[in-house]
Q: What sequence folds into this?
């Protein structure tokens, strides 16, 4: 019996996945918006939040790849009707991920000053980066644990519980941000940037606790490690390593962009911080359909339904592009208010308005890249994803970035490089999908 792909089926997974996916960028956006409006040294705080946020996102994305690998393997087993055979793998994967995250955390905490100096932070901005990071970094293992659990639920074709976790974390973070950053008269002194860090850390801890409880109460999976090692653990590690290298290449692009923006001056890194947070937010917004492709694609591959797989790719691409066009429309309608929501500093806003149109116009390109990226993860095509990102970064983004710098394009050069980067990524994935899976169709 072949699978039928309907709009309802896709959105049942995509809508909750969208809400869940924006949790982490929403934490950073909340920090950016609230910190950027601090009356005392708001521009320095905004710059520090952007630099630290970019570095933490790099760490989370690099080590969070186990989520995609475990989701792909579980969904393929579900599609093949062998769910019970995979029960011992999640615990082993989670412990591996947490162990790596603690190792990375301990290795960075002692060289934090050097890390942010490398990113061109100096003076007050460097001081704020260190204090902000020293608090937020402890949420790193918590976030990776939460991501791993979300990957397990995705593999089981369930995006509802990850959505609940994300909603609670996002709402709590906004609430605590206002209290800790601005204080409560007569009760709590304003903590400014450090308050934003504590708000994020507490929200991440609550999300991790929720993930732990839901995993134990809503699935048959247990976190007690079992021997022998699951035979799929080797494949999971190889898939994760390919995604690890891919994430390194991805974050080289993001970090180079932050470094170049910081070198231009405080107003530019402030503007870039706003732009990259909006870019990430829209990416995770579109990523809901990528998640549906990831989840359903793995299941369809497991059941060898290649007709359904091709139909799925076609439908989620259309839906994703429609979402991106909606985001474009909203971006142009609220072009000015969006900037003032994040900062009241005129030089920062002028720099931001000079690049925001590039961020908006790139949305359809981004949607295709993100959707096929998610689909390829579900299909277990991690090696091709790795090679595509390496090519896009080293043959596309980096040359374009420094060509833009040579011609004095400043922030516009950085965001033109981002657009080219996404065009190469999306185009390569569409071509490979048609080459590899179109011949397998029966109709």
A:
């Amino acid at each position: 019996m072949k699978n039928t792909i309907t709009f309802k089926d896709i959105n049942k997974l995509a809508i909750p996945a969208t809400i869940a996916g924006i949790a982490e960028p929403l934490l950073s956006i909340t920090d950016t918006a609230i910190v950027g409006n601090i009356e005392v040294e708001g521009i320095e705080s905004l710059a520090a939040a952007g630099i630290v946020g970019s570095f933490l996102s790099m760490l989370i994305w690099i080590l969070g790849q186990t989520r995609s690998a475990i989701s792909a393997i579980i969904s393929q087993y579900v599609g093949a009707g062998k769910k019970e055979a995979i029960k011992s793998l999640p615990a082993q994967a989670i412990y591996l991920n947490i162990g790596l995250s603690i190792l990375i955390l301990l290795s960075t905490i002692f060289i934090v000053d050097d890390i942010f100096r490398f990113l061109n932070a100096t003076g007050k901005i460097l001081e704020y980066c260190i204090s902000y990071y020293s608090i937020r970094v402890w949420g790193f293992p918590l976030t990776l644990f939460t991501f791993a659990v979300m990957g397990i639920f995705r593999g089981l074709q369930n995006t509802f519980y990850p959505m609940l976790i994300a909603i609670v974390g996002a709402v709590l973070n906004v609430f605590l941000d206002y209290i800790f950053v601005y204080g409560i008269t007569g009760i709590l002194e304003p903590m400014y940037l450090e308050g934003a860090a504590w708000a994020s850390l507490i929200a991440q801890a609550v999300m991790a606790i929720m993930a732990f409880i839901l995993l134990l109460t809503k699935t048959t999976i247990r976190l007690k490690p079992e021997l022998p090692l699951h035979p799929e653990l080797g494949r999971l590690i190889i898939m994760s390593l390919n995604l690890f290298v891919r994430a390194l290449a991805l974050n080289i692009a993001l970090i180079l962009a932050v470094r170049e923006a910081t070198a231009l001056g405080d107003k530019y890194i402030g503007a870039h911080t706003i732009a990259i947070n909006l870019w990430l937010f829209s990416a995770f917004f579109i990523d809901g359909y990528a998640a549906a492709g990831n989840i359903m694609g793995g299941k369809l591959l497991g059941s060898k339904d290649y007709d359904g797989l091709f139909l799925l790719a076609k439908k989620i691409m259309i839906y994703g592009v429609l979402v991106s066009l909606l985001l474009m429309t909203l971006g142009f309608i609220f072009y000015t208010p969006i900037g003032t929501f994040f900062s009241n500093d005129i030089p920062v806003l002028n720099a931001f308005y000079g690049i925001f149109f590039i961020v908006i116009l790139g949305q359809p390109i981004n949607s295709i890249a993100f959707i096929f990226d998610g689909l390829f993860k579900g299909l277990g095509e991690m090696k091709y994803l790795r090679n595509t990102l390496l090519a896009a970064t080293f043959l596309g983004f980096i040359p374009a970035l420094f060509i833009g710098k040579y011609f004095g394009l400043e922030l516009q050069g950085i965001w033109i490089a981002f657009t080219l980067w996404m065009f190469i990524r999306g185009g390569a994935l569409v071509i490979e999908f048609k080459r590899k899976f179109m011949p397998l169709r029966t109709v």
Remarks:
- The CA atoms of residues 5 and 312 lie 6 Å apart.
- The longest helix spans residues 266-302.
- The chain has two domains: 7-229, 243-440.
- The chain has a mean pLDDT of 85.
